[in-house]
Amino acid sequence: MTTTDATTTATQLRPGRAETDRLAARVAVPREGRERIEVRSPLNGEVLGVVPAGTEEDVAAAVARAREVQRRWAATPVRERAAVLLRYHDLVLDRQGELMDLIQAENGKARVWAFEEIMDQAVTARYYARLAPRALKPKRRLSPVPGLVSTREHHVPLGVVGVIAPWNYPLVLSVSDAMAALVAGNGVVLKPDSQTPFTALRAFELLEEAGLPSGLVQVVTGPGRTVGTAIVDHSDYVMFTGSTATGRVIARRAGERLIGVSAELGGKNAMIVTDDVDLDAAVEGAVVACFANTGQLCISIERIYVARSIADAFVERLGRRAQSLRLGAEQAFGPEVGALASAAQLEKVRAHVDDAVAKGARLVAGGRHRPDVGPLFYEPTVLTDVTPEMDLYREETFGPVVAVYPVDSDDEAIEQANDTEYGLNASVYCGDPARGRAIAERLLAGTVNVNDGYASAWGSVDAPMGGMKASGLGRRHGREGLLKYTESRTVAVRSKLAARLQDPTGDQEGYARRFTALLRKAKHLPR
Ligand code: NAD
Question: Of the N and C termini of the chain, which has fewer Cβ atoms inside 10 Å?
Answer without folding.
Answer: C
